[in-house]
Design goal:
Blueprint lengths: L1 H15 L4 H14 L11 E7 L13 E6 L3 E3 L2 E4 L4 E13 L8 H4 L5 E14 L2 E19 L5 H9 L3 E2 L15 E11 L4 H4 L11 E4 L4 E6 L3 E2 L8 E6 L3 E3 L2 E4 L4 E10 L9 E10 L5 E14 L4 E3 L5 E3 L4 H29 L5 H21 L7 E2 L4 E6 L3 E4 L15
Antiparallel strand pairs: 1-2, 1-9, 2-5, 3-4, 5-6, 6-7, 7-9, 7-18, 8-14, 10-23, 11-13, 11-22, 12-21, 13-16, 14-15, 16-17, 17-18, 17-20, 18-22, 19-20
């Protein structure tokens, strides 16, 4: 009662002085939102990937459960390595909440409608990283937990690699993960981290490499690899041609021991070609290209880069062809067996229902004619059902690790107004 009277009085007072109450409330809401980092903004947090020591079931985790593992990738901030790959990590479950299941391309819709729409999800708020300098506390938020595998373009282009080698020694981080390419990894936790509490050790503050001189100009050759992190979900079923794609550089790119592209640089691209899953169990496809790059200092330059690899959930049925196009696999035996079983059941139900309807409407109908009509109707319905089945989708969730390669040389200078691209990107 008192709070209602106070609210009305506050609104009247604001109107009396010419201030809209809605403006006041919106400003207060904006201030509240600003106290928490925006997880979708590039560079808003550190990307932390932890490989667990043992398999874990989300449904078994409870508050105060402790998970231990090690970093599967170096943690970078700009040109500084904060934590090396292999550092021990300890996480404690703060609480468990219900979350909607992530979309996937594992099974047809017939299976998905019988699976729970929500599942118990552990919520972590803090993580402790142990390295040579001692304990480091991070404020974290869990993005995903799954087993991961890597996919790559079938042909990576020997000519591009040769060009990269001729122009100097191009280095990226050696943290390709603690599992080999193409191998099924152990369970992986992907976390976004903020605020490092306490004193940072000397090993954490040491630069991964000396920054380039302010007046230096470096040219990255065509074929230079970059490890990036997708900042938004992209899929063959929902994305459209021309949609903006943004990704953050995970690891600094160096040339002859000089850091040219610091971690946190943002690549911008677009969806070039997109085919949604279609009738006849035809799978979808997706083709991305990257045309722009913004450095942490705000300098923008046009680039030309293509997708050459990605890290997906181990159950994903997405593959990459030699041109870097992502395609859904054709339905397998299990997929077809499920749809055939559903079709058989549907045909039986339609057959029985048709016979009952015909017998109720036409009293003179014979058993033979009724059965024949029912078979024709059930065959048509089951045929339409099978033909109308869509194939697998291509889904790249937010925070998907991807590998791209420069299609043309890129010249970078640290001067604010002199960052240029050696390649003229056509059609952008």
């Amino acid at each position: 009662m008192r709070s209602s009277i106070f609210s009305k009085g506050l609104g009247a007072a604001l109107l009396a002085v010419g201030i809209s109450p809605s403006l006041f409330l919106c400003s207060a809401a904006d201030d509240a939102r600003r106290t928490k980092p925006d997880p979708t903004s590039p560079g808003s947090g550190l990307y932390v990937k932890v490989q667990l020591d043992h398999p874990v079931k989300l449904s078994k985790l409870r508050p105060a459960s402790v998970l231990e593992g090690q970093l599967a990738r170096d943690v970078y901030s700009a040109d500084h390595e904060l934590f090396p790959v292999g550092s021990r990590v300890q996480l404690t479950v703060d609480h468990v909440e219900k979350r909607k299941r992530d979309a996937d391309d594992h099974w047809p819709w017939v299976v998905k409608i019988f699976t729970p729409r929500h599942r118990d999800y552990p919520i972590f708020t803090k993580a402790t990283v142990f390295d040579a300098g001692g304990e480091n506390n991070l404020q974290v938020s869990l993005v995903s937990i799954s087993r991961r595998r890597e996919i790559h373009a079938q042909a990576t282009g020997k000519k591009s690699r040769k060009q990269a080698g001729e122009a100097g020694s191009v280095q990226t981080s050696k943290s390709g993960g603690i599992y080999g390419p193409g191998k099924l990894a152990a369970p992986i936790l992907v976390l976004e981290a903020w605020n490092i509490d306490g004193t940072t050790s000397a090993s954490n503050t040491a630069a991964a490499g000396q920054p380039a001189d302010s007046s230096s100009v470096e040219t990255l050759p065509a074929g230079t690899p970059c490890k990036i992190l997708l900042l938004g979900e992209v899929s063959a079923s929902k994305s459209k041609v021309g949609d903006l794609v943004r990704a953050r550089l995970l690891e600094p790119v160096s040339l002859d021991s000089h850091i040219v592209l610091p971690a946190g640089s943002v690549f911008e691209g677009k969806v070039v070609k997109q085919t949604p899953p279609r009738w006849g169990s035809r799978s979808g496809s997706l083709y991305l290209t990257f045309t722009g790059l913004t450095l942490p200092d705000g300098n923008f330059m046009p680039v030309a880069a293509s997708l050459v690899g990605a890290e997906l959930d181990h159950g994903s049925h997405t593959r990459m062809d030699s041109e870097g196009r992502l395609r859904g696999e054709r339905p397998g035996k299990a997929w077809m067996a499920i749809n055939i079983g559903v079709t058989a059941g549907l045909a039986k139900e339609v057959d029985d229902a048709t016979q009952l309807i015909v017998e109720a409407l036409i009293s003179t109908a014979t058993d033979a004619s009724t059965a024949g009509t029912a078979r024709i109707v059930s065959s048509c319905i089951s045929g339409i059902f099978m033909v109308s089945r869509h194939g697998r989708d291509v889904l790249l969730p937010r925070f998907t690790e991807m590998d791209i390669s420069l299609d043309r040389p890129l010249t970078v200078t640290t001067k604010a107004a002199a960052v240029t691209s050696a390649a003229v990107v056509q059609g952008n």
